[in-house]
Amino acid sequence: MIHLICPNPALDRTLLVEKIEKNIPLRPTEVRDYPGGKSFNVAYALRENGVTDYTIHTILGGQIGRYIQELNADGGNALRVVENSQNTRTCNIYVETSTGDVVLFYEKGFELTEDLLNQFTQQIENSLQAGDILVFSGSLMKGMPDDYIQRFIEKYPEVLTIVDTSGPALRAAYQARPALIKINNEELKDIYPELDEESPEAILGILKEVTPHENIIITMGDKGSLAKIGQRFFRIQSPKKETRNPIVAGDFYLGLLVKGISQGQAPEIFLKEAAAFATANCLNYFPEVEAEQFEEILDKVVFEEV
Predict the structure, then answer these.
(1) Is the pLDDT of residue 139 over 90?
(2) Are 261 and 47 a contacting pair, CB within 8 Å?
(3) What is the pLDDT of residues 227-239, one digit of tens each?
(4) Distance, CA of 171 to CA of 89 (rounded, Å)
(5) What's the CA gap between 73 and 77, in Å, rounded?
(6) Nearest CA to 203 among 159, 234, 174?
(7) pLDDT at residue number 82
(8) What is the pLDDT of residue 242?
(9) How many angstroms separate the CA atoms of 57 and 137, rounded?
(10) Chain-wide mean pLDDT for the chain?
(11) pTM above 0.85, yes or no
């Protein structure tokens, strides 16, 4: 079973606007609502690629929380919910279609009490079994201790923990050596301050000579990705495409990594698929991927062992 951890969900509302202007009413040409929070995006990537044995663990409350559960039911994700009296937040993503610019308005999340945190933690722990996969994606919400992820890694060594986070939580989890880490070049620099994060050669040097981890992927934006899987090293580059909305691309990338790890795929397969699925998402205004887009880009991904 794959457990996707989403303590700070949101209603993600994407609004398409031809031009964003000040001091006048803006009339979107299209508006769509989605269950938000990185784990919901990872779940979409899993589901669209045939994976069904996953559960999202989250905290929901109020009218927005109930609406998210309705939207999620349409998506077919298994959900484990800790109920909360506070209303779940809304995040508005404005896409200016004339320029491709994206403006983000993210509401503050609910106040995490000690009781809510304990309920949430216990729910996760009661669900874990040996051989399960535990996925932490995104930053921890305010009120969670910096070593929250690290505690799970150390307490449940029989569970494969996958981490995509940042800041103090990343530094703590990094020391505990999770089964797989996916971060970007700037987050790697947060761990190794002397690193030239714009240099793929310098990043590859860290992977080959410094990092003790078995499995780590570093995304570098337009420069592609570098990966260490076991004692093998890879460079992955997607074709250049015009981007419409890249906001969830990293989550979709993670989803295909989780799929590959859960199914025991060769890195030659899951690293290429992850890059292609993330890039295909960027072709769309909404957090979705068309199968034809994915297949077309997959054929053009450059993959090499280095």
Answers:
(1) no
(2) no
(3) 999 999 999 999 9
(4) 27
(5) 7
(6) 234
(7) 97
(8) 87
(9) 12
(10) 96
(11) yes
What does the pLDDT read at residue 75? 87
Rounded to 5 degrees, φ, ψ at 226 are -125, 145
- What per-residue confidence (pLDDT) applies to 170? 95
Query: Is 89 within 8 Å of 35 (Cβ atoms)?
Result: no
Burial letters 83-99, b for 16+ CB under 10 A, else e: ebebbbbbbbbbbbbee
Token digits of residue 41: 């995006």
Q: What is the pLDDT of residues 34-78, one digit of tens each?
A: 999 999 999 999 999 999 999 999 999 999 999 999 999 988 999
Residues 204-242, buried b or exposed e (16+ Cβ, 10 A)? Answer: bebbeeebeeebbbbbbeeebbbbbbeeebbbbbbeeee
Looking at residue 58, its amino acid is T
DSSP per-residue letters across 70-124 = HHHHHHT--EEEEEESSPPEEEEEEEETTTTEEEEEEPPPPP--HHHHHHHHHHH
